[in-house]
Amino acid sequence: MSALAETPRQEAPAPRLAVSYAAIKRGTLWLLGASSGLALIEPSPYEIVFLVVLFVFTLTGIRFSQKLLPLALLLLGYNIGGIVSLIPWMDDSAAVRFTAVSVYLMITAVFIAGIMSQDAAGRLETLRQGYLFAAWVAGVAAILGYFDIGGLGEIFTLYGRAAGTFKDPNVLGPYLALPIVYVLQRVLTGQIGILRGLATLSIPLAALFFTFSRGAWGVFVASTALMIALTFLMAPSSAARARIVAMSAAALVAVIAALLVALSFEDVRAVFEIRASLEQDYDQGVTGRFGNQLRAIPMLLEAPNGFGPLRFRWHFNQADPHNVYINAFASYGWLGGLSWIALMAATIYVGWRLVFRRGPAQLDAIAIWSVLFVTILQGLQIDSDHWRHLYLMMGLVWGLAALAPQEEDAGVPEPPLSFRGAPKA
Length: 425
What we know:
By secondary structure, the chain is mainly alpha-helical. The chain has one domain (20-419). Helices cover 68% and strands 1% of the residues. A two-stranded antiparallel sheet has the order 1-2. Residues 1-8 and 421-425 have low confidence and may be disordered.
C-alpha cells in the first residue's frame, strides 16, 4: 500500500484546441460572404478574401464535376472575346482592369460551383450567414448615409439615394434581394418565426427602399413572388401551403405598413414619386438610354471585336449601354456576346431543372434561383456583368445542379418538418 501511495500520479494531458479543415474552410467562406458587400474601393476586400479562400481550398484539393464544363467553357469563351477586344487598348489601364475583373469573376463562379461537391450543407449555410451579415453592414451604412447621420451622407449616398458600401444604389439594391428572399422563405416554411424574420429583414429592406432604384424594387418584388410561388408549388402538404399563404399575407401587410410610414415623410414621398415613374428623361429620345441601345446594334453587327472594353461611351453620350447583352457584344466582341447569351440560356435550363428536383437542397435552390433568374432578366436594363453576387449565385446553382442524388442526400440538411416527406422525383 505504501509503495502504491508513493507512486507519482500521472497528470492528464492538457486538452488541445483542435480545428478541422472543414471548420477552417467554412470560416474563410464566411469571410467571403461577409466581405461581398464592401465595394467602395478597388481591389475590394472580397477580391483579397477570395485569394485566401482559394489558397485554403487548394491545399486539400477541389473536385470539379464534368457537369460544370459548360459553365467553365462558356465563361472562358466570354473572357477570351474580352481579351481579344482589349488588344488595341492595352495602354488604357482602366480597360485592362475591366478585363482583369471579368477574368477574376469567371474564376470565382467556377470555384464556387466546384466546392459545392463536398459539405454542401455547411458551405451553403456559411455563405448565407456571411452574406446576411454583409447585407446588414451595407444596409446600416446606407441608412446612415441617406439620413446624413454623422456627416456620412457624402460617403454612403449618390445623387441623394442610399448607396451604402457600394458605389451605385442600382447595385446595392439588387445585392440585398438574395438575403431578403432567403429570410422570407425561412419564415414561410416555419424555420424562423415571423417577428424574428421581420426584425432580421428590417435593415436590408429599409436600405433597399432608400436606394430608390426601380430595378432593385423590381428584382425584389419579382424574386419574392417567384420564390413564394415555387415554395408553394413544391410544398408537400395542404398544411404547408396554408402556412405559406398565411405568412405571405402577414409579411405583405407588414411591408405595406412600413411603406406607408416611410411615405408619410414629404421628402421621402417626393423622391419616391419621381423614381417610381416608368419614364425618366434620360431614357427617352433617340439619344436616350434605349435610343442609344437601338443605334448600337447595327454598329456592333459590323464590329466582330466590338467597340472594346469601356468604349461604348466613346460612341454615345452615356457611360454604359445599361443592357448587359449589348454590353457583352460591345466590350467582348461577337465571341463574348454569343458566349454570354449561351451562358445565360444554359443557366436558365440548369436552374429550372434544379428547382423542380426533389431533395434536401430544393428550398435553397428555390431561394437562390428565384433571385438569379430575375437578375438574368434584369440584365436587359442594366450592366450586371461585373456584379459579384451574380457570379456567386450562378456558381451555387451550377454547383447544386452538379450534385448526384446520393451526394445531395449526404451533403444537404433535412428540410423543415413541414416540408419533409415529399417523394423524390
